[in-house]
Each structure stands twice: as C-alpha cells, then as structure tokens.
Amino acid sequence: MRKGLLIIFIILPALSRAEDGYDLWLRYNKISNTAILSQYKKQINSPVVFGSTQTVAIIRTELGRAFSGLTGTPFRILSSIDKASSFIAGISTSSAILSSIVTKDELIRIGKEGFIIKTRPGKTIITANTEIGVMYGVFHFLRLMQTYQPITGLSIVSAPKLKLRLLNHWDNLNRTVERGYAGFSIWDWHKLPDFIDKRYVDYARANASIGINGTVLTNVNANAVILTKPYLEKVKALADLFRPYGIKVYLTARFSAPIEIGKLRTADPINDTVQLWWQQKVKEIYELIPDFGGFLVKANSEGQPGPQDYNRTHADGANMLADAVAPFNGIVMWRAFVYSQTSNDRFKQAYEEFKPLDGKFKKNVLVQVKNGPIDFQPREPFSPLFGAMKQTPLMMEFQLTQEYLGQGTHLVFEVPMFKEVLNTDTYSKGKGSTVAKVVDGSLDNYSLNGMAGVSNIGNDINWCGHPFAQANWYSLGRLCWDHGLSSAQIADEWIRQTFSNDKSFVETVKKIMLQSHETLVNYMTPLGLTHIMYNGHHYGPMPWGNTLNRPDWNPVYYHKADSIGIGFDRTPTGTNALAQYSSEVQRQYDDIDKCPEDYLLWFHHVPWKHKMKSGRTLWDELCYKYYTGVDSIKAIQQQWNKMNKYIDPERFGHVAQLLGIQVKDAIWWRNACLLYFQTFSKMPIPAQYEKPDKTLEYYQNIRILYAPGN
Ligand code: BDP
User: Fold this and answer.
1) 281, 428: one domain
2) What is the pLDDT of residue 11?
3) pLDDT of res. 17
4) Are both 200 and 150 inside the same structural domain?
5) Which of 168, 172, 302 to mutate to test the pocket of ligand 1 (most atoms within 8 A of CB)?
6) Are residues 193 and 261 in the same domain?
7) Are 367 and 361 spatial neighbours (Cβ–Cβ below 8 Å)?
8) Which atom of ligand 1 sits closest to the CA of residue 179?
9) Which among 127, 400, 607, 677 is least surrounded, fewest beta carbons within 10 Å?
10) What domain range is 645 assigned to?
C-alpha cells in the first residue's frame, strides 16, 4: 500500500500537466530541450515592441506570455530599446534599426499584412508596414519557437496568398449551430453587448495566430433579426474586440429581410424601395462598424429566399447588395451552392445557373463555390465552376466542420482533401491552371480573392469537440496564408504546438493524420461513391435511403446501384456533366478504363464484374476498399494507444475513446454498405474477409434520432 502510494508520487510530476485543449496551439509550454532553450534566449533578450496602439498592446501581452511560458522565466516586453535588447519588433518606420534592415522592394512585396523577420547572431528583427503585419510576424516567430525550429539565420519575407481568409460560422441566434459538433455557438447573443466572454478574446488570438482576417458570424440559412438595431449593437461589440487582431466581421444577409424586418411588400432587387432599404440598412451598419466586411448570401437554395423569387438572376441580387456596400468598401460573397433548378443531375446545377452570369457581377462581388459540385462529400472532383468563370472572382468554400466526415467522433485531418482539390488542374488557361491559381486570383488577375472554411468551433471546452478537429481550423489559416504548404508540414507544426515535440510522437501522429482522410473514404465512400449518409443528420450509412420527396436528397439517386452495376453515368451516354469541364479534364475522366479509380463511380455506371487496375472485379475491389478502411482505422487506434507516454492523460484518453467509436462506426459503414450493395451484385464477399456478423435488416433498422448539429 505505502509502496504503491510512493510510486504514484514519483510518477505524477513526470506526467504532463492536465490539459483540456482550451489553449489550442498556443500553449507555450516550457521548452524541454536545454540546448535549444539557451540558444533561443540569446535571441529574445530585453524584447522590445515599438508603438502604442491596441494591436501593439496585444502583441506585447502575447509575447510576454509566450516568452515566459517557453523559457520558464518571466518576461516583460519593453516599449523602447535598452542596451541588452536582442529582440526588436515594430513597423518599419518606427525605428532606424528596423528600417535599415529591410529593402524598399521587400516592403512592397509584403503589402499590408505581410511581415519580415531577419536575424543576426544575438538579434531578432520583426517588421512590417502595419502593426497587423508585425503581429503576424510575431506569431510566426512564436510558431518557430514552439516547434523547436532554428531562429538564427532567418531571412523571411512573407505575405498571404489570399486576401480574404475567413471563417464562416453556421451559428444561429438561439446558439444552435447548424452542422456543429462542438456544443453551442460561442456567440452569446443574449448577453452581448454588455457581457464579453473571455472566449472571444482567445478566439481572436487563435485566428490572428494563423492569419485569419475575417469571420462571418451567422448561419447562411439566415435570420433577418441579426440586421435589427439591437443585434447590430451586439455585432459591434464583437467587431470592436476583433479589430485590433486584424479581424473584420461579416454577416449573412437574408434576402427577404426588407419584408421581414423592413415591413416592405417585396424584396425584389430591382425595386427602388427595396434598394433604398438596403442602402439605409448598410449605412446604419457602417455607422456602428466602420470596417464592416460585407455580406455572405445563400439565395434560392434549400428554401432560402432570393432574387429568383422575383424572376431576377443571382447577379441582380448580388449587385443590388454590392451597390449598397460599395461606398463603404464592403463586399458581397454570393454562394453558388444552389440546386433548386430542375436538372437531370444535381452535379450540373451550380454551373448551369452561374456560368451564364459570368462577367455580370459588380466588382465587389465574389461568387463563393464549394470545393466540389455536390456537397462537401468525403471525396469530390473539383467544382466545374473553377476555371469556367474567368470574369468573376471565385472564392473557395471548404467545410471544416465534419458534416460528412464522421462529424464530432471521427479523426480526420482534412488538409490532404483540400490540397487534392487545390492542386487539380482545371486547364482553363492551359496546363497548370490549378484550382489554387483560380482561387488566389493569379490565373485571371484578381486582387479580390479568398477562401472560407465553414467553422467547426463551438462552446466545448476544447473548442472543436474532437481534439484533432482543431487541426482543421488551424489548417484553414495556414492554407489561406500559403496554399503551397504541404499537408505534412501543416500537420507537423500543429502536432508540435498542440501536443509535443517528441520525435516519436510527432512522426507517429503525423502518419495517423496523413492517412486519416483516405481511411475514412475507404470505409465510407470508396471508389467515388457519394452521399450515401443517413438522411437529415448525415451520421452513419443509409445507402438504401429512398423516402425523401426530392430524388436528389436520396442516397439511391447518387449511387444508382442495380443488377448491372453501380455509379452515376456523367459521360455523354448519361447526364454528360463532364461537358462542364475543359476537354483535357473530360479526357481524364470519360473513359471507364482510364478514369482514376478514386473518382470512378462519380462518372461511370460500372458493371459489377468490370476489371479494375488491381485485376479484381469492381465488386471485389469495393469489398477490398471497405475492409481496408476498417483495417486502417484499427491500425490507427493501435498506434494511438502507444502514445500515452508522450502526452497528458486527458487528451490521450479523449482521443482513445473517440477512436473506439470510430472503429465501431467504420465496421457499421462497411457491413451496412456491402450487405446492401450485395443485394444488387449478388456476388459473395471474398472468403478471406470476416463476414458481417449482422444482417442488412439489422443495419436498416438502426435509428440515430438525436444526432447533433441537425
Ligand atoms: C449542406 C448542409 C446544410 C447547409 C448547406 C449549405 O447539410 O445544413 O445549409 O449545406 O451549405 O451540406 O447551405
């Protein structure tokens, strides 16, 4: 008994401190490597940050906190140089030391938000044209320190690739979050503007640390009430708080707001009174929030009102709002996620509605396009709109919240999926016209450009529910800053900051993260299957789903399994959706024997006995993929279970339990899908695999009634 107690006392101090994930990637734990620590200390002596604005105060506080935490000794950040100062930061005009170390050309290159870090032995200089730039530079420097990178010999000149780097919250005013799996909304509207939750500050810090410069506070399925005076005052409180962190606020505009809160009879965008109403509303907003970013609009989609209700086009609607915000430098982000028009293929609808409008939008409008043509599926080909609308800036919309990716319980690092899309060649201006170049404006020369991520943030103590979901939020910022960063690099730096710099831990967990997306695709929707999730809440498999009113809400619409085969024929013998891509892209997909197998069932109805590249039949390949998916997630679980010695028991245990759910879910997905598709293929599951231990009826009777986020 006594001996046992003694052991506990000896072991406890050796364990990491209890962590709940609240600190995200800004933990600033003491650097455990003494050689690195002593080298770092030389570069950050008597640190000074010039300036006296709120942003500078924020930088000083952050640096004080970080340097004290990382070194284990208290640091005070000075406002003027002393003899010992080896760390000097501020805008380039604030001191001769700063201006002497940069060239004119470098200052032009970094623009308003970029930064320069240069080091000499025993000197660190961080400078920029603006204090926001200095702040980004400081966060970059702290990232280097947190990840144990060298901080001598630096000569970094860095500017963001994208201008708009936004989070889109799908948060409702009653604090529920559409497709949110991390609790309720962090916006406590009821208590705003008088009560400022500490979380708002930490939210701003976190976003600033990864370069996010805008946040759309409200759901795209919009509520006009947000545009009423009392709510605008609440929005103002957030905007005031976020401003010194370089973050602008945006709101979703409900198209019928003039009727709902303005008491007008119509919301027709061509109507003078409607236009006047919006102009006045916008003026009211800018009086409260002079740097208000603008509007995000979902119109004529899934029951949302829009200009088509008045026989006007998306351009008419967008331009009316654009005119209203233009005098204040505001923008409109008009979403292309529409599928209300009758088409023989939902894949084609966004293109059919938007392509004819190319060139018809005002200068301050961006069309915001989801990465794929359908809806945030585990794997989608790129939306054909990218590359097709050369006269309109297109903004990328990714979904961080994992609506179709295991929601709050599955570990999925999304960057490989994002990069797959960004790196795809649209061929719109010949070879090398990648989606990334469309989005960053370099292909068609747009200075207005951006990328948005549908937020996965809620009021859970760790912000995102799953400890690994934080990585997806982190990645949005990093990719917006530089979409050239590799998945491995982003994972690496996130792991080091969030968990540990221990080499074995970093390498194992990085491997887990990099495999996680493909693993999920394999056990959920391999070979280009899509949208076979449960109705409504989308948690779990329901490939048999066929009861909803609209065909394109039902899984059977998407897989089209029958006695001959499975998959959606989008070649000229089918809906010919392929024609929406450039001829080079069409050629990659149109031949059933050459189409990359990851996308095969997106474009072809493939016979069950079709011979795959592996030599297997399609049916056997499908079995192989589903079984591989389950095996991989089991392997990931085993690898994780060995990680307990490297990190705190809280987060270790949290992830371990969720992986338990994920393994069960993967088996559920595999068995349910294979048993169901087998009713068409009539072929056996190959003998080497363990057979499903439940019947198809068992899986068809599973009811998940209260899945979150719905
Ligand atoms: C779908 C979601 C739905 C969203 C919609 C959208 O299921 O909740 O409102 O996207 O993006 O994926 O507007």
Assistant:
1) yes
2) 38
3) 52
4) no
5) 302
6) yes
7) yes
8) 8
9) 607
10) 521-568+605-700
Q: Tell me the HSE value of 480 on the side-chain side, using a 13 A CA sphere.
A: 31
Give kind and range of the element (H or E) at residue 49: strand 48-49
Closest Cα to atom 9, ligand 1: which residue? 221
pLDDT at 2: 44
CA-closest residue to ligand 1 atom 2: 179
Distance 337 CA to ligand 1 centre (A): 8
Q: Which two tokens stand for residue 571?
A: 């070649």
- Ligand 1 pocket test, pick from 172, 300, 375, 402 with the greatest ligand atom count within 8 Å of Cβ, gives 375
Regions of the chain with pLDDT less than 70: 1-17, 341
pLDDT at 632: 98
Helix (H, G, I), strand (E, B) or coil at 562: coil
pTM: 0.97
Does residue 153 form part of some domain? yes
CA distances, 154 to each of 136, 298, 334 (Å): 16, 45, 41
Q: Looking at the structure, do residues 291 and 388 belong to the same domain, yes or no?
A: yes
Cβ atoms 552, 339 nearer than 8 A: yes
Q: What is the pLDDT of residue 341?
A: 61
* Pair 446, 538 in one domain: no
Query: pLDDT per residue over 473-499, tens digit each?
Result: 999 999 999 999 999 999 999 999 999
Question: Residue 328: what pLDDT?
Answer: 98
pLDDT digits (tens, 9 = 90+) for 530-561: 999 999 999 999 999 999 988 999 999 999 99
Task: Count Cα neighbours of 170 within 13 Å in the Cβ-side half-sphere.
Answer: 24
Q: In angstroms, what is the span from residue 370 Cα to ligand 1's centroid?
A: 10
- Kindly compute the dihedral angle of the four CA atoms of residues 537, 538, 544, 546, in this order, to the nearest 10 degrees: 50
Q: How far does the centroid of ligand 1 lie from the alpha carbon of residue 132, in Å? A: 33
CATH number at residue 475: 3.20.20.80
Residues 6+ apart with CB under 8 A from 248: 213, 214, 215, 239, 242, 291, 292, 293
Atom of ligand 1 nearest to the CA of 219: 9
What does the pLDDT look like over 520-531, one tens digit per residue? 999 999 999 999
pLDDT of 137 reads 98
Q: Using most ligand atoms within 8 A of CB, pick from 403, 456, 538, 553 the residue to mutate for ligand 1.
A: 403
Position in ligand 1 atom list of the atom nearest CA 304: 13
Measured N-to-C along each axis, helices 54-71 and 198-209 cross at an angle, to the nearest 10 degrees, of 80
Q: How many domains does the chain have?
A: 4
Contacts of 175 (CB under 8 A, 6+ apart): 184, 185, 187, 188, 189
Q: How far is the CA of 407 from the centre of ligand 1 (A)?
A: 14
Handedness of CA 377, 409, 651, 644 (dihedral sign): negative
In a domain, 598, yes or no: no
- Residues at CB less than 6 angstroms from ligand 1: 178-179, 220-221, 298, 302, 337, 375-376, 403
Mutate to test the pocket of ligand 1, among 255, 304, 337 (most ligand atoms within 8 A of CB): 337
Residue 690 Cα to ligand 1 middle (Å): 37
Single out the residue of 229, 228, 234, 230 nearest to residue 249, CA to CA. 234
Ligand 1 centroid to residue 13 C-alpha, Å: 47
What's the chain's average pLDDT? 96
Give the residue, by CA position, lying nearest to ligand 1 atom 10. Answer: 375
- Both 222 and 370 in a single domain? yes
What is the structure's pLDDT at 343?
Answer: 82
The closest-lying atom of ligand 1 relative to the alpha carbon of residue 404 is: 12
pLDDT in the model for residue 18: 74
Ligand 1 atom closest to Cα of residue 221: 9
Position in ligand 1 atom list of the atom nearest CA 370: 11
CATH number at residue 552: 3.90.1330.10
Single-letter code of the amino acid located at 285 = I
Residues 149 and 213 in one domain: no
Name the residues annotated as catalytic. Answer: 302, 375, 403
pLDDT at 6: 42
Residue 545 CA to ligand 1 center (angstroms) comes to 18
